[in-house]
Amino acid sequence: MNCNIKTATFVWCLVLLGHIDPVVSTIRDCLTNIKLPKLFEYDDFDECRTWNPSFRYCVVQAVIQPDNTSPIWQNISVISANRRNFPHDQLERGLCLQRCLNQLAVSHQISVGLVESNLITEHEQNAYFGQCLNLELETSYNLHATTTVMNCITEDDFRISLGAAEIVFIGMVVLIILLIAIATARDLRGDLKNQYDAAIQSFSISRNIRKLLDCEKTDGNLAYLDGFRVIFTIIILVVHSSLPMIRMPLKNVEDFEAQTNSAIFPVINSLNTHMITFFFVLGGMVLSVGFLNHIDRSKGFTLRYQWKKLLNRLARLLPAYAFIIFYQATVFKWTKKTPVAFKFVDYCSEHWWSNLLMINNVVHLSEPCLQYGWYLGADFQLFLIGLGIMTSIWRFPALKKICIGAMLIIAFAVPGIVIYLEKLDATMSFDMRHALNQLREYKEFLRYYTPFYTNAGTYFFGMIAGMVYHHVSKNSISVASRYTKQAFQYVFVLLIVLSAFLVILPWIKVEKPSIFLSIYGSALKAVWGITHATVFLMYAFKTDSVQVAFLEHPILRVLAKLSYSIYIVQYSIIHMVYSNLSVPIRYDMFNTVLITSANILITFCCAILLHLAVEVPFATILKKVIDGKIRITNFSIKDQKLS
């Protein structure tokens, strides 16, 4: 390892290990000396439903009223003031109405005759829940709270009602299954003769499995990028699988808070925040290399190529995306009839169109449909911009240096300008209140993380890396390999230094808007993009490398074909799994690994089905339509040999 990298890593470790967080000590002392109300307590939902045919089970939030004379309230105030902690003045209770009424009857606050829960109005129900909660708080802690019923579930919610949308979705699934069965049977018999078989055969499961397992490598396709794509897709899946734990009712919130208050947590949060830059850099590099290779092969360029490239991209993305959105808007609600399901609500039935138009990264961010889909919108917008830039550079070669200079200026300046004008932090810091609300009101997420213009720089770094690769691959690769390796070492040192500074950044009080925060935030984002770009180039120039051989392994090439389906299906799977957990749960390594493993396994299985049954068949048919091999008007097929 280079001496600079060793030194920077050593300094980083010293900073992390030497940092003492007084907040953690304060929390532990408070919890040790005075017993605080539990943040989460839930009655047994299955028991409530079993013993009461007309049951009502509600999740109630209790906001403790300030009482400066109470030592308990004083400690609650101290702990809640730290934004990395849960708001300890907001309690959450899962209450069975029948149990609550029995409790009030025993304490003689209501008559025994009112215990029949099915005779109680919603207004009375809310009042009784408030009485139950305050009975607990006043008896045990001498505190009082105002209550709000957040969600209720009754036996009526378990009755499946079919609307027009649900019927259409089920009919579509049945039709796809029939097409798969017919196509597979004909394919196995070799019975593909008439004009309709060219489309029907696209649904053959045996044919699509062969396509999936086909790992034939073509020259100059940067196959090692598939390995990187798989690795980062799995990392994203693991991170997304663990994030909803924040919104779950926990038995041991103090253990979770100890982690969020650790010295290294800001660095970990930064890694999570900037991980998406990998995919933007990758997209930019693939675009520029593909464009330049097409120019070399075709000895020219037409707008027809640009139009077909756009249509082929939509043909690959939209069918599977639309299927998942349709599922999310219709039958997905049947998979999560539980008290905590309301924590994972989305708005696909209302805002599906913004996803299909690829503008969901700028509209409906506070009421998203498939929240992770914001990346697809931003990436598509940057694809259009990148395609326009590459076209301009080809059409007017004299503009090449000007375009690259403008791209670099945008990369370094735009994030900083946004941070300054919007009065934002340098990067997305962790705030428990925003995390509990899925970042839907977090200004840094809405104004800085998701817009295409703040991510354009990392995409442009990928495009520039692609141009460098295309130029160098025709010349001396060995010289380029040496320079790229040196560049990576310097960039990596800079990345470590900037990331280590995040440890002390939360304790630096700076008035916003801040030029310092703007420069630092822009530099951090840019260095992440440059790091990914130099890594891609470094591996592109490694001709004989065990690492490259691993990244080009056939298994990773197969998984790379599934990466898109994995990304779009994960949201539904993760929320379904968390919604059906028994709560409250204990936050520990065992449960985290167990839940994450379940999410990964189910996501992979569903992604395979989605890829084989929807993504590949519809993409194949639409590509034939785009290429003119199938005409929609009369469904005729041009003369060709069917294989």
TrEMBL record:
Pfam families: Acyl_transf_3 (PF01757). GO terms for molecular function: acyltransferase activity, transferring groups other than amino-acyl groups. Residues 223-611 form the Acyltransferase domain. This is Acyltransferase 3 domain-containing protein. It comes from Aedes aegypti (Yellowfever mosquito). The gene is 5579848.
